[in-house]
Specification:
Blueprint (H helix, E strand, L loop, with lengths): L7 H14 L9 H4 L3 E5 L8 H10 L4 E5 L19 H14 L2 E6 L4 H5 L4 H12 L2 E4 L11 H11 L3 E3 L13 H8 L6 E6 H6 L4 H10 L3 E6 L1 E2 L5 E2 L8 H10 L5 E4 L12 H17 L1
Parallel strand pairs: 1-2, 1-10, 2-3, 3-4, 4-5, 5-6, 6-7, 7-10
Antiparallel strand pairs: 8-9
Length: 298
């Protein structure tokens, strides 16, 4: 398999071209940061590669953030996986050292407590929050919905407050049995909870489920819970495309959040053409740079 490192020179060159074509110079690439947005890569985009290669890519593109995914291998050609339950102290330090070297922060990670963990009232769930506290991570998740007791949103909110960990509820497809494919269910579970419980928008999954992600963004923003994105655009056939090339009203989302002073984390996540993990991220970053610059002029 061709590793990310072997493509590094070409990818950086393409990124530079994309920024120039978008009408942005390199010194303007932090305009989205001036708006309070943390922009990065969801490492699942690098599922054919490794977490470390996602970190390398983020650094090469001038991005400061990565979201990890449970079970992804950490380094090329090694078996160790990103796992909150049995990761060794040595591996945790290796990840911290890699991030420090590249100037990149693993700001969050996706993990879903299993149905078995919930039903057995396993300590495994609390270990996830202990891990997040130790590694300073936001938890992106979509656990099964339980009305009360162990596994309820009250239970999770208590853990969030106990460990100082933010948890965002993301949407996977309705066809996959996602507990949060409906934005109204996300808002219902956020209502009345502490500041540690928020919403995440996966633009692609909402689009393919027939939900307008722009409307979800409006609802979450108005409720003060618009914390996080799995960011991409999607065309009329439901295929992942670069920002601005699809039908997801990305410009309107960005404008609304800027108007309302929402400051989410936006991690690019692409499931299409994963043998070329930056194929859509490079032009998307150019689009985002241009839009941020234009919004700041208003």
């Amino acid at each position: 398999m061709i590793t990310y490192n072997m493509k590094k020179v070409l990818i950086v060159a393409l990124a530079t071209v994309a920024v120039v074509l978008a009408g942005c110079q390199t010194d303007n690439r932090s305009d989205y940061e001036k708006m309070g947005w943390k922009v990065g890569i969801q490492s699942y985009t690098f599922t054919k590669f490794s977490l470390f290669e996602a970190i390398d890519a983020a650094s090469d593109l001038g991005l400061k953030y990565v979201e990890a995914t449970t079970w992804q291998r950490i380094e090329p050609d090694k078996k160790d996986a990103f796992n909150p339950w049995w990761m060794s102290a040595e591996t945790k330090q290796k990840i911290k050292d890699k991030c420090a070297e590249k100037g990149v922060e693993i700001v969050s990670f996706y993990c879903r407590p299993s149905k078995e963990d919930i039903e057995k009232e396993s300590e495994q769930v609390e270990k996830i929050f202990q891990f997040c506290q130790e590694m300073n991570l936001i938890l992106t998740t979509d656990p099964i919905r339980v009305k009360s007791g162990f596994g309820s949103m009250e239970f999770y909110d208590n853990l969030c407050q106990k460990y100082g960990v933010t948890m965002v509820l993301t949407n996977h497809p309705k066809s996959h049995g996602s507990p949060y494919w409906n934005a109204d269910d996300v808002l219902e579970d956020c209502a009345g909870r502490s500041k540690y419980i928020g919403a995440s928008v996966d633009v692609g999954h909402f689009m393919r489920d027939g939900t307008d992600p722009y409307e979800a963004v409006r609802k979450y923003t108005d409720a003060g819970r618009m914390y996080h994105f799995h960011f991409r655009d999607v065309d009329s056939e439901g295929k992942d495309v670069a920002l601005g090339d699809g039908a997801a009203h990305i410009k309107e989302m960005l404008a609304y959040m800027y108007e309302k002073k929402a400051t989410p984390i936006l991690v690019f996540e692409y499931e299409r053409d994963q043998e070329e993990p930056l194929k859509y991220i490079v032009p998307s970053l150019g689009f985002l740079n241009r839009e941020a610059t234009e919004l700041l002029k208003k």
